[in-house]
């Protein structure tokens, strides 16, 4: 680097090594932290990724010191930075190097960044830290109490109040008690919370940059894991905190309790037997893929060796050796080396897994070519693979796997034995049978909301219902609607918008290529992409396709609708309006 040779070469690296001394951080240093100022600019060094590991500072007595993360103490850049500081003429304090925790390095860098941008709204902490942490704990407590899967914290430059929302049972809800939180306060909360993030890309929370990481917080004696993902929008940052399954470490639900019908449950159980082949689950975020995957792997007998590759580990599986394949930032803290580090880490894991004589391997998610290569490598070596990916239907799983993003060759997907089972699933709001209403009674509970959540008149509702029943052929007398006020069985005062529902209902579509002789024949005749397009066209036109044992998820959900378990409006929200 240029800064390593800047200035007059009065001292050598060996001179600095001989004179360097190291001191460990203690709470006694915290009182002087306010007066320390980073001096990257005075060294003509761009902080960049260096600030995640080191920070040269000038102290209150005008002497200088190098702050270093403890895990980076042996890095060659430490000596190079000390050399650059001495060559620039700075008077060094003794000891030269202070080993600090990540939260301290983040605090110093945050103050430096805010000082350089005095026009930013969130540059100064106007709220005491204990108040900010109290608010953070209140938000997390509400999420745990209601079973929220995600917390959404959004700032809008033109609005004085922050937007705090939660995903509960697949719906976005905004509790009234959090709607008065000022944007300034939430901005400060995000800056403070980011200091506890592990593996984050950046020492400070940056509203103008996408950042990811993981943090943990103790709520009422329980460690709660959170996955941080921030999105930069035109109006301000939006942070999504995924609650990493606080109950999952206690119990994995049995496969039979997840709500699959008997025929699909039998397909899942068959997927646990035999060597080789891939079992792939798809669905939207929050559709229960990880839960089903964990329950399925739990069914594998103890006579087989199971290894998992996950990020993060969501469920503790007693019958598996679980390995955390950390993302780039968690391994190195440097985005420039992410791809190379991930490649090396996963390649080493795969080589070890094959030498460890594993029968079954769980890969948390396939999202890129690296995951696609891992899938091919394991399946072709005779290992059974269980994994998830994001796709919009079970047929789209085939196109997603063969896409340039993942890169599994079509010829491999058309090879018998490679794909053992494909699953696409969704979770729909399940009506509370104790208070669900037939159409005539629902009409008397104004205001009436359509599937778009707009208030409609009684006349509109009657016309809609008439055309809906004609279009679907549904047995109208068996269909039920959500009671807007709920009952003693289902009423949830904290989430009034979900009154009338009691949990969620699993619906899924599956393809087992080995039991459907037309699968491989059709793909081999015209090619994967063209045949998938043909099947999808058939589904749109007649509601079924040439695959004998495949039943689309829409038909599965319609059965639940006719049984009175799903509100027609929830069916429309998920599968589109009837025409």
Number of domains: 4
Give the tally of β-strands.
Answer: 20
Distance between the termini: 65 Å
**How many whole angstroms does the radius of gyration measure?**
28 Å
Global mean pLDDT: 82
Percent of residues in beta strands:
15-25%
Order of strands side by side in the largest beta sheet? 14-13-15-16-12-17-20
Level-2 CATH architecture of the largest domain: 3-Layer(aba) Sandwich
The CATH class name of the largest domain reads Alpha Beta
Low-confidence stretches: 1-18, 117-123, 327-342
Structural class: alpha/beta
Quote the CATH topology of the largest domain. Answer: Rossmann fold
Helicity range:
25-40%
Q: What does the overall shape look like?
A: globular
At the fourth level of CATH, the homologous superfamily of the largest domain is P-loop containing nucleotide triphosphate hydrolases
Put simply, the count of helices is 18
Structure, explained:
It is built from 18 helices and 20 strands. A hairpin with a 4-residue loop joins β10 and β11. α9 runs parallel beside α10 and α11 runs antiparallel to α16. By secondary structure, it is an alpha/beta fold. The N terminus is likely disordered. The strands form four sheets. Strands 14-13-15-16-12-17-20 form a seven-stranded mixed beta sheet, with helices on both faces. It folds into four domains: 115 residues, no CATH class; 115 residues, Beta-Lactamase (2-Layer Sandwich), CATH 3.30.450.90; 170 residues, Rossmann fold; 95 residues, no CATH class. The protein is globular.
């Amino acid at each position: 680097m240029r800064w390593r040779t800047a200035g007059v070469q009065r001292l050598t690296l060996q001179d600095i090594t001989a004179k360097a001394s190291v001191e460990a951080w203690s709470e006694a240093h915290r009182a002087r932290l306010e007066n320390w100022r980073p001096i990257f600019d005075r060294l003509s060094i761009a902080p960049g990724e260096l600030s995640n590991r080191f920070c040269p500072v000038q102290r209150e007595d005008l002497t200088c010191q190098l702050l270093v993360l403890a895990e980076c103490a042996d890095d060659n850049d430490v000596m190079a930075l000390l050399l650059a500081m001495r060559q620039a003429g700075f008077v060094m304090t003794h000891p030269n190097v202070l080993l600090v925790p990540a939260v301290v390095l983040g605090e110093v860098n945050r103050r430096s960044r805010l000082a350089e941008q005095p026009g930013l709204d969130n540059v100064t902490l106007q709220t005491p830290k204990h108040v900010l942490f109290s608010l953070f704990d209140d938000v997390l407590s509400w999420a745990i109490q209601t079973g929220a899967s995600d917390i959404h914290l959004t700032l809008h430059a033109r609005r004085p109040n922050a937007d705090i929302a939660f995903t509960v049972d697949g719906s976005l809800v905004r509790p009234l008690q959090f709607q008065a939180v000022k944007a300034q306060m939430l901005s400060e909360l995000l800056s403070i919370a980011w200091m506890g993030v592990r593996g984050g890309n950046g020492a400070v929370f940056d509203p103008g940059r996408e950042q990811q990481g993981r943090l943990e917080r103790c709520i009422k004696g329980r460690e709660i894991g959170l996955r941080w993902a921030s999105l930069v929008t035109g109006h301000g940052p939006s942070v999504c905190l995924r609650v990493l399954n606080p109950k999952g470490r206690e119990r994995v639900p049995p496969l039979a309790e997840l709500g699959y019908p008997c025929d699909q449950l039998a397909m899942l159980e068959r997927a646990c037997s035999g060597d080789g082949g891939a079992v792939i689950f798809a669905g939207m975020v929050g559709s229960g893929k990880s839960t089903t995957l964990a329950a399925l792997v739990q069914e594998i007998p103890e006579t087989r060796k199971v290894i998992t590759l996950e990020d993060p580990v969501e469920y503790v599986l007693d019958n598996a050796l679980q390995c955390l394949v950390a993302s780039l930032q968690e391994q190195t803290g440097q985005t420039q080396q992410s791809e190379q580090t991930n490649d090396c880490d996963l390649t080493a894991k795969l080589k070890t897994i094959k030498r460890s004589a594993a029968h079954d391997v769980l890969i948390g998610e396939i999202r890129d070519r690296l995951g696609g290569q891992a899938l091919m490598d394991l399946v072709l070596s005779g290992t059974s693979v269980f994994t998830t990916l994001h796709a919009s239907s079970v047929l789209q799983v085939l196109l997603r796997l063969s896409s340039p993003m993942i890169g599994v060759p079509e010829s491999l997907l058309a090879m018998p034995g490679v794909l053992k089972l494909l699953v696409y699933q969704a979770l729909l709001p399940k009506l509370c049978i104790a208070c669900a209403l037939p159409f005539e009674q629902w009409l008397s509970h104004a205001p009436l909301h359509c599937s778009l959540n707009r208030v409609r008149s009684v006349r509109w509702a009657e016309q809609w219902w008439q055309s809906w029943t004609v279009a679907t052929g549904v047995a109208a007398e068996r269909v039920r609607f959500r009671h807007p006020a709920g009952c003693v069985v289902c009423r949830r005062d904290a989430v009034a918008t979900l009154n009338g529902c009691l949990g969620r209902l699993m619906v899924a579509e599956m393809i087992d290529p080995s039991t459907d002789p037309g699968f491989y024949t059709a793909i081999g005749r015209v090619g994967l992409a063209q045949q998938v397009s043909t099947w999808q066209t058939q589904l749109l036109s007649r509601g079924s396709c040439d695959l004998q044992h495949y039943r689309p998820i829409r038909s599965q959900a319609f059965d639940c609708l006719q049984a009175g378990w799903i509100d027609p409006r929830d069916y429309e929200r998920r599968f589109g309006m009837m025409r």
